[in-house]
Design goal:
The protein is an alpha/beta fold. Helices cover 38% and strands 20% of the residues. The strands form four sheets. It has an eight-stranded parallel barrel, surrounded by nine helices. Strands 11-12-13 form a three-stranded antiparallel beta sheet. About 3% of the residues have low confidence.
């Protein structure tokens, strides 16, 4: 089997953002896009431009910023969608329109209410429309995993003739098994007369925990693009994990006749950035990027690794970025060192005023922590975004009293629309008391669906990063906060969530863009 290129198509900014509560701001999308570009991801799917003004502006901003990766926008096979995507991608060095229509019997009959002939006609029209904006057009058959093979052959042949350069086969609902999905790809490549004129791609969901396995089976059987996300982020059970696919292919070159061009030493940094921005922590035993991925507790394992690493490690931790030399900052570090490290992390603060605000926060943190690591800086910069001008609620002060045998009490002062208000409340613990006090002042009426605490770095002086998920009227938002004081971090996270609830919803329902 000859060596050739595996194209990595990252959809963290689009499909990953469809995880409940994982919406990203324009600036956050740009930060992640820069990290993906630095990692040499081939294609960055930046969003679904028709979904909302915010999504359009996010795709447009990424297209204007990224120079070394192709920037992609998703569009249904509809005129308004395609034109909107074309407009958003105008500034891209290399732009791709990714258009899709459902092809499974249940979707065509129940959702689209179209005949197979009408679906083929619409798909061909959409590809030709997209070709008016760019020569790089991808076509996806939504729910291909439950579609009839003969119909897939028919529609794919037609759209390739119409100008599609990438054909994507999504397992939209995570229904397939690896042997089955691989055979589907093999037959499509073999049976479609013009299959040599397009790259075959796969996009697998993880509902049965098989997204990576299905993707790898597809690669073995001829797929040369894999659509995936950092940390496997995505709606429901998530998407195929970029880091697992890339490292599986690279580690098992005896099996795979291809390899990606990714700089894998950037994987851990990118994983932590995405986790920090979205508020979705990485489980310790997660492959490649989990804290325990290269840890050995068993005495037998430790002895073996010390004698010869390959006895129990099939990859080097350094190859995915775990032991890169890092500049550790402290209270005596200056502005230039601070700015330089942020630039290395792909963070552009824009104006001098923003740098000054961030540097002041850095100094405050340095007074509490002896050493400040990359993860602290990423949390600090993410938190910086919480002080936007349109932030309606801001924490002014918090005092909690928690004593054995006594009911915890919290005194909270908030600035709400510029006016300071204070209240005291009791609760089952200091965090509960603080939340009851905040809710007494802001009265969102939201339900707390998730409260999660993670340490950003090691040590008792580590910042605690708190993620909350609030639900109101069917709308879910994530709130985040970080501080060396976990109660203050908790209050910041709740207030962040409240501010998001007060903003108008930015996205259409996620399922409108599910491939």
């Amino acid at each position: 089997m000859s060596q050739d290129r595996l194209i990595i198509f990252d959809t963290t900014l689009r499909d990953g953002e469809q995880s409940p509560g994982a919406s990203m701001t324009r600036d956050e999308k740009i930060r992640i896009a820069k990290a993906l570009e630095k990692m040499q991801v081939d294609v960055i799917e930046a969003g679904f431009p028709i979904a909302s003004v915010g999504d359009f502006e996010g795709v447009q901003a990424v297209a204007d910023t990224v120079k070394d990766s192709t920037v992609c926008g998703l569009a249904r096979a509809l005129e308004a969608d395609i034109d909107r995507a074309g407009e958003a991608l105008k500034g891209a060095n290399a732009g791709r329109i990714h258009t899709f229509i459902a092809t499974s019997p249940v979707h065509m009959e129940r959702k689209l209410r179209m005949t197979p002939d009408q679906v083929v006609e619409q798909a061909v029209w959409a590809v030709k429309r997209a070709r008016g904006f760019t020569d790089d057009v991808e076509f996806s058959a939504e729910d291909a995993g439950r579609s009839e093979l003969d119909f897939l052959c028919r529609i794919f042949e037609a759209v390739i003739d119409a100008g599609a350069t990438t054909i994507n086969v999504p397992d939209t609902v995570g229904y397939n098994l690896p042997s089955q999905f691989g055979e589907t790809i093999r037959q499509l490549v073999a049976r479609i007369p013009n299959s040599d004129k397009a790259i075959f791609s796969v996009h697998c969901h993880n509902d049965l925990g098989l997204a990576v396995a299905n993707s790898l089976s597809a690669v073995i059987n001829g797929a040369r693009q894999v659509e995936c996300t950092i940390n496997g982020l995505g709606e429901r059970a998530g998407n195929a994990s970029l880091e697992e696919i890339v490292m599986a292919v690279r580690t098992r070159q005896d099996i795979f006749g291809c390899d990606s061009r990714l700089d894998t030493t950037q994987i851990v940094t990118c994983s932590k950035l995405v986790s920090n921005i979205t508020g979705f922590p990485v489980q310790p035993n997660k492959a490649i990027v989990g804290a325990n991925a290269f840890a050995h507790e068993s005495g037998i394992h430790q002895d073996g690794v010390l004698k010869h690493r390959e006895t129990y490690e099939i990859m080097r931790a350094e190859d995915v970025g775990w032991t890169q030399n890092r500049m550790v900052l402290g209270k005596h570090s200056g502005r230039n060192a601070f700015r330089s490290r942020l630039e290395e992390l792909g963070v552009d603060l824009g104006s001098e005023e923003e740098l000054n605000v961030a540097f002041a926060r850095f100094k405050d943190l340095a007074d509490k922590k002896h050493e400040i690591f990359d993860e602290d800086l990423q949390a600090l910069v993410t938190e910086k975004g919480l002080d936007a001008e349109n932030e309606r609620i801001r924490l002014v002060s918090l005092r909690v009293v928690s004593e054995t045998g006594e009911t915890p009490n919290a005194d909270v002062t908030l600035a709400i629309d510029g006016e300071e208000r204070s209240v005291s409340a009791e609760g089952g613990g200091p965090v509960d008391a603080a939340y009851r006090a905040i809710e007494a002042l802001v009265d969102t009426g939201a339900d707390l669906k998730l409260y999660s605490v993670n340490n950003i770095t090691s040590g008792t002086d580590s910042q605690g990063e708190v993620t909350v998920r609030l639900e109101k009227g069917g709308r879910l938002v994530n709130g985040q906060g970080a501080d060396t004081d976990i109660v203050i971090a908790s209050a910041k996270a709740y207030i962040n969530g409240c501010n998001k609830l007060l903003e108008p919803a930015q996205r259409a329902h996620p399922q409108t863009g599910d491939v």
